[in-house]
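Milestone 3.1: sequence recovery, worked example.
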């Protein structure tokens, strides 16, 4: 199914008066509103192809209906999201979950929906049918050079696919680690990972980036070979200027100060990509901003500060991606909610009075600094975000429009009840 301009207009028309009232008020309160709107209109968040179907837990999976069964249908789903919010203009593929048979055709379809291809992801954490050697004991860090070679080759194949599609980055997340003390020699595991990544790095085109994603735990419980930002940064520094750390919000030990990590990675010019999600306990992959919205705001506060300090463009300086898994809600609705939560946190962080904050810090004015941050965080920026959408030709209330148009019902009619999307 497709959403047409007329659909957007019919959704917006009955809501416009109420919206304008709210927007006029915030405009009178916030002098920098036009600059914020401009930033929001440029800011695009890539949608992960593996989050368009229903996720599961270790204990089961309750299938949704009308899931995208093919890559084309996944692209169409992201097209629907983008039509509703004009802020999800890219898709991030996971290979081989996404089987790209005809890159030209796939690219054409994406372009026709206003979408580009964000980072491509390699998968060496599962064994595929017809795969020669197993990744049970890891991939790039494996003790057996033949397994490492196979995993390196897979990453090179993924880069080649990405080149055909117009991607500009490769994300490597490894499920390499150990579950029992003594299982691994840490130094050798690290060195093997480094030399495997060096081979992959050598195949990166000039204008590409390599994102090294870390994760503190899971699927292994004693050690992960790229377990934290220190290990990722060490690898990125040794690899060279095209290698960066990728921060996934769910990949830290409980209560880690992620905003501080982000700040220091940016200070080093080594933050490259971002995976948004939220969590209560571990890698819960919940809707962005659903559990800890203040943390999301604080992270954006550091992102803006660090990006401005480097002179990097907010919209293009980093790879902005969602990485979530939905087993309670309709995946498309969940993704719409995530995008909105990210935009809200970004807009609030843009409102922070940075010069006043600097002065407060210089005077050790603890109370003042807190007031400045919380003043921005407690501003209801929803009418600003809605105005940015309106000006970009999107829906004033994307979730509402999704429900009113009965989009899922129509997708089920088109695709059937039993389609299953690949992914986790
Ligand atoms: C991992 C990690 C990766 C994602 C896989 C599916 O936990 O977050 O980014 O590719 O899940
Ligand atoms: Mn991730
Ligand atoms: Mn994860």
């Amino acid at each position: 199914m497709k959403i047409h301009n007329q659909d957007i207009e019919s959704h917006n028309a009955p809501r416009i008066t109420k919206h304008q009232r709210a927007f006029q008020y915030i405009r009178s309160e916030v002098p920098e509103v036009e600059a914020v709107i401009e930033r929001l209109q440029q800011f695009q968040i890539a949608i992960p192809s593996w989050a368009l179907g229903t996720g599961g837990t270790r204990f089961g999976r309750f299938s949704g209906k009308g899931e995208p069964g093919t890559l084309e249908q996944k692209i169409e789903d992201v097209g629907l999201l983008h039509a509703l919010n004009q802020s999800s203009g890219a898709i991030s593929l996971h290979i081989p979950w996404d089987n790209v048979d005809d890159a030209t055709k796939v690219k054409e379809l994406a372009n026709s929906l206003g979408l580009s291809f964000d980072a491509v992801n390699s998968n060496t954490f599962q064994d595929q049918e017809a795969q020669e050697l197993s990744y049970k004991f890891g991939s790039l860090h494996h003790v057996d050079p033949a397994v490492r070679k196979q995993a390196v080759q897979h990453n090179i194949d993924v880069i080649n696919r990405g080149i055909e599609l117009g991607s500009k980055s490769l994300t490597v997340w490894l499920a390499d680690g150990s579950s029992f003390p003594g299982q691994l020699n840490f130094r050798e595991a690290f060195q093997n990972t480094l030399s495997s990544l060096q081979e992959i790095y050598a195949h990166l085109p000039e204008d590409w980036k390599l994102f090294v994603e870390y994760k503190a735990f899971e699927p292994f419980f004693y050690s992960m070979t790229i377990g934290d930002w220190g290990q990722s940064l060490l690898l990125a520094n040794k690899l060279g200027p095209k290698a960066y750390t990728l921060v996934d919000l769910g990949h830290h030990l409980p209560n880690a100060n992620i905003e501080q990590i982000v700040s220091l990675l940016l200070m080093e010019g080594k933050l490259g990509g971002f995976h948004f999600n939220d969590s209560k306990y571990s890698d819960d992959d919940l809707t962005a901003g659903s559990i800890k919205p203040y943390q999301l705001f604080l992270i954006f506060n550091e992102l803006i500060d660090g990006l401005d300090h480097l002179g990097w463009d907010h919209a293009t300086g980093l790879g902005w991606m969602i990485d979530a898994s939905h087993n309670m809600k309709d995946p498309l609705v969940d993704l719409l909610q995530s995008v909105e939560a990210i935009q809200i946190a970004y807009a609030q962080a843009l409102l922070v009075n940075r010069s006043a904050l600097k002065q407060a810090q210089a005077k050790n004015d603890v109370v003042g600094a807190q007031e400045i941050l919380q003043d921005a965080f407690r501003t209801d920026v929803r009418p600003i975000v809605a105005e940015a959408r309106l000006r970009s030709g999107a829906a004033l209330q994307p979730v509402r429009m999704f429900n009113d148009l009965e989009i899922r019902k129509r997708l089920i009619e088109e695709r059937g009840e039993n389609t299953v999307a690949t992914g986790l």
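The two ends are 25 Å apart (CA to CA). The mean pLDDT is 97.
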